[in-house]
Amino acid sequence: MRELPVGWEITPIANVLEPKYEGKTIQQGWSPRCEKHPSSCNNTWGVLKTTAIQAGYFIENENKELPEHLTPKEQIEVSEGDILLTCAGPRNRCGVPTLVRKTRPKLMMSGKMYRFRAFEEYFQPSFLELYLLSHEAQLAIDKMKTGSSDSGLNLTHGRFRELLIPVAPFKEQQRIVDKVEELFSELDKGIESLKTAKAQLAVYRQALLKHAFEGKLTEEWRKDNADKLESPEQLLQHIQQEREARYQQQLDDWKQEVEKWEADGKGGKKPQKPRKAQIKQTEALVDDLPNEWAVYSLSEISEHIVDGTHKTPKYVSEGVKFISAKDIFGFRISFENTRFITEEEHKELIKRCNPKKGNVLITKSGTLGRVAVVKDESEFSLFESVANVPVLPPMISEFVSKQVYYVINTGFGASIQKGVAVRHLHLEDLRKLPLSICSVEEQQEICLRLDSEFTLLDSLERELEVNLRKCEVLRQSILKKAFSGQLVSQDPNDEPASELLKKIAIEKAELAEKEKAEKAAARKVKAAKKAKT
């Protein structure tokens, strides 16, 4: 730890904590298996989740219901003024519930939390909380954790008790807390403005897509090119011809594979006959489409739509890339953090689902409705969280992908989602997804205009993200100055931190003696009762 100003001290955190919880300075919570025991909503007890803890405040509804057949542990009920810190997992979360917005009257700590209290007469709880949120403290806590990312990282009582913290004079602590809260308040206003701007960009993006797929974005263009445009019925006829041609080719290939299989003595599995696309009819979402447009289902403009494997494969360090929902975002496939499977397993999986160049991928579980177009002939396999849509020419895949994104992320998309705890989309609903179809030429024009607008929106969103990250850097800069004595002025008349620590040590010793005496008295009473019997 760096050199501190005059009047400050460095001490293990245990030296400033009050033995508040049954004589303990640090107490851990409890994690019953709430999800496996359905119970009545009349239960008043819940277990606070670690995700509820943010910097100084709590998120409403972030708790699990305690089953009625389990007896609550009142000794770990969360109270105002507790300092809570997560003690498991890679991320450190810390907060003081000065105002716990409880969705249940009573909340217990999770087993992944510690709670503790500072001696408030000599030490400002908010001063301690702010230090625990600093980058310096976070790094120190990370170094104290045992285990690994795979087996789980844990912070033990013993190690945490030795965390070194800076102690400023009591009055200076208050000045620091007041100044930090003032600066954080201004910073939070700026962050809120940036988040509002980001939300407005998302709204504008959806409005732009709505305008595009109702035919309004290219209304003037369509009038100027009316004599050159193919009708949707003609387009669908071309698509059906392409589908039949592809299916016939697949059928011919299959017959040759069967002949070879029979010639080889029918060893192994018989080649599977190709499946025709399941054509699903649908209804229009928009009543006032242009006359030159029509509504078709996703299955009407594609080959057979299927998702990836429903079995978790065996991952290897190198091999064929294996894509799941987490790898699809920003209208693209990210191959940066993919897992790998063997070539042999990949060959088996693509018999069911074989994504090729021009296909549209849709996330159907996890974060729903993210889309991407396969841009090249790269080999990869898919997990069940992703659906593969082989779009048929002359349809333009980019046009289809953006409209699928728009439809799923509107009110209609919410109506077809299934599940409670985990939301997902069924393939049957995806096949019936209604799309507004226009001529290929107009599809191209819409894609050009959307790409131009999206490029600008993406640039603005990146700028907002950069500024949000800068805000977090600024927050840490404020904390660094605060705990190096550079944020507020020092007052030589303040009682030095060394005196505070002495007073805390004396009070802790007195409390320990009192507890010892009480236990001795309780033993005497117990012995006397036993002697009488």
Characterization of the model:
A hairpin with a 3-residue loop joins β9 and β10 (152-154). The protein is an alpha+beta fold and 533 residues long. It contains twelve helices and 22 strands. The protein has three domains: 9-169 and 490-532, DNA methylase specificity domains (Adenine-n6-DNA-methyltransferase TaqI, Chain A, domain 2, Alpha-Beta Complex); 171-229 and 446-487, Helix Hairpins, CATH 1.10.287; 230-259 and 276-438, Adenine-n6-DNA-methyltransferase TaqI, Chain A, domain 2 (Alpha-Beta Complex), CATH 3.90.220. Residues 35-41 and 98-102 have low confidence and may be disordered.
State the main characteristics.
single chain; 533 residues; alpha+beta; Adenine-n6-DNA-methyltransferase TaqI, Chain A, domain 2; Helix Hairpins; 3 domains; four-stranded antiparallel β-sheet; 12 helices; Restriction endonuclease subunit S; DNA-binding; nuclease; hydrolase
User: What is the name of the CATH superfamily of the largest domain?
Assistant: DNA methylase specificity domains
Strand content: 5-15%
Strand order, main sheet: write it out: 2-8-5-6
Shape: elongated
User: Share of helix among residues?
Assistant: 40-55%
Structural class computed from helices and strand pairing:
alpha+beta
CATH topology of the largest domain: Adenine-n6-DNA-methyltransferase TaqI, Chain A, domain 2
Number of helices: 12
Gap from first CA to last CA: 60 Å
Summarize the main sheet: 4 strands, antiparallel
The averaged pLDDT comes out at: 86
- CATH structural architecture of the largest domain: Alpha-Beta Complex
Instruction: Give the tally of structural domains.
Output: 3
Total strand segments: 22
The CATH class designation of the largest domain is Alpha Beta
Organism: Pseudoalteromonas marina
Coiled coil: 457-531
Family: Belongs to the type-I restriction system S methylase family.
Protein name: Restriction endonuclease subunit S
